[in-house]
Amino acid sequence: MSSTQITALLDLLHDDSDTVRAAVAARFRELGHAGLTALEEARDSADAHLRARARILLHEIRIEELCERLSGVLSDGDCDLETASVLLARIENPEVDGSTIIGELDRLGDLVADELASCQGPRQRAEVLGRVLAEREGFNGNADDYYEPKNSFINHVLQQRLGIPISLSAIYMMVGRRAGLSLRGVGMPCHFLVQFETDGETFFIDPFGGGRILTRESCKAMLAGFRHSWREEYLQPVEDRQMVRRMMANLIHIYHKREDSQRLDRLYGFVNDIQGGQS
Length: 279
Fold this sequence. Notes:
Layout lengths: L2 H10 L5 H14 L1 H10 L5 H28 L5 H12 L5 H19 L5 H15 L3 E2 L12 H7 L1 E2 L1 H14 L4 E4 L6 E6 L2 E6 L5 E3 L1 H10 L11 E2 L1 H19 L2 H8 L11
Parallel strand pairs: 1-2
Antiparallel strand pairs: 3-4, 3-7, 4-5, 5-6
C-alpha cells in the first residue's frame, strides 16, 4: 500500500461511524508491520483527534498480537514459564520491557548461585531461596492488598517485591532454575508452593511465607486452617503451563469481582476452561 493510501486510511480514523472505524482497523491489521509503523507515527501527530484514535488502535492491535503469542506458548508441550509470564504482563501493559525483567531475574539468579556455593547439605540448599529473595531482597506476600491484579504480573512483583503465592513461586522458580536448582510448582488448593528436589530429598518452599520450608504435615495443617480437606495428590507438582493457567484463573476471578468486562473477555478469549480464585 502506498503512503498516499495509508494517509487516506489514517484520515478515516476521524470518522465517528463505528462501521467505518471497524473497517479501517481491520485494514490496519492486515497491513501488519507497515500498519503498525503508520499508527506509531500517527500517535505523535499534532492532530489531537488522530493522535488519540491511533494510540487506541495501536494498543488494541498490540494486545491482540500478544494474546496470539501467549496462546501459542500455552499450546506448546514445553511451555516456558518465563516467556508466558512476561507475555501475560505485556498483555496488561504492552509497554512492559521484557529485557528489564530478564535482567533482574539474571541478577537474582547470580545472587542465589553465589550463596549456594557455600551451602552444605540438602536443607541448606533448600533454604537459600528464602534467605536471598525474602530476607535480602525483600520479596513478601501482599496480605494487605491480596486481590490487587498487579500481584499477578511479574514486572510488578519484581518492582514492588510484593505478590501472591503463585506469582512469588514463579519468581522463586525462575531465579532458582538459573542457579541450577530443580524446582517445580505445587498447586495446593488456596495456596501455592515450590517443590525442591536434591540428593534424593524433597522440600516444599513457601514463597508467600518468606521462603520457609514446609513438611507434609505442615502443608496439611495449613489446609486445615483454610477449612479445606486433605488429599495426598495436593503435593504433586504441576507443569509450568498449569501454573500460567492458574495465574489467569486468579485474574479472571478478580476481574469478575470488579466487573471488568474488557479484561475478562480478553482472558476468556483463549482460556475458556479456567476456574477462578486459586492464588
